[in-house]
Amino acid sequence: MGRDDWADAALDALADGGLAAVAVEPIAARLGATKGSFYWHFANRDALVEAALARWADRHTDAVIRELDPITDPAERLAALLDATIGRPVANRAELALLAHADHPAVAPVLAAVTARRVEFIAAAYQQMGCTARDARHRAVLGYTAHIGLIQAQRATAGALLPDADRPAYLRFLAGVIRPPAGD
């Protein structure tokens, strides 16, 4: 049982029940481990929360960016990003749980850093497409907030707002809305 196993289990617990669910004994039971195993890897619960947050940031931001960065055409990169985030019916439970705890002192800086990284990645593609820095940022913020709004609304409607069958059409529509006009 390694540190990553504990961080993964903590992230799952966070997704299932928020920060309050990140508790050593229930996670140990879920893993079939002892509290001693936990203390071998972490000084305290706060360190476990920190590791889970780092894991979330890597999996849901840095890994996606690493996967998409090699795409040289910025329009193709943005299309791949839309597909990777909105186009796949993925459970965004951890993201929703973190947004619900956005004012928590451990969560707030991680959310701020992830948001900045995501918006910068999107804006860079728009700049490569010829947008000014200001317009690129505005388009990036629009695209990013559309994503966050959609996952919030999907949760509130149990997925009824945008059924899976409608996702491809929604992606085409959204891509058209956020694509800069020719010569912009």
TrEMBL record:
Residues 23-42 bind DNA. The keyword DNA-binding applies. GO terms for molecular function: DNA-binding transcription factor activity; transcription cis-regulatory region binding. Residues 1-60 form the HTH tetR-type domain. PROSITE patterns: HTH_TETR_2. Pfam families: TetR_N. It comes from the Bacteria. InterPro entries: Homeodomain-like_sf (IPR009057), HTH-type_TetR-like_transc_reg (IPR050109), HTH_TetR (IPR001647). Transmembrane segments: none annotated. Keywords: DNA-binding. This is HTH tetR-type domain-containing protein. It comes from Actinocatenispora rupis.
